[in-house]
Design goal:
129 residues, mainly alpha, single chain, rod-shaped
Length: 129
Amino acid sequence: MRPASATSVPLASPDFYERLGRLQQGLRDSEKKRLDLEKKLYEYNQSDIYRIKLKYVKLKKYLEEISDSEKKAHIRNQEYLKQFERIQAHVGHFTINTEKLQKLKVTSCFVLFKNLFVVVVVKFGNSGQ
């Protein structure tokens, strides 16, 4: 046998080179296809259709945010309305009580003046005799 030298490279079979050529051609074809697809994607991203769809998605999300905000505001306003109605009922109750107190005050004053008049008449009526 012949000793293998460090500088000598074993020759590959013709099948190896044929297979290597097919793999390299497949790699070139795949790279070309990838570049074509990348170009189409770029063109699509720049197209009006993509921009319109993107704007649609943004507007739809904004509409959902506004809708949620409106629902929360409606619930909050309903709570405010309930609180206002409760306060209004209390104010109405206080108004009724104030009117009753005013009538009681007038009645009390009338009774007081009537009694005072009776006392004065009795006192001065008796002192004149």
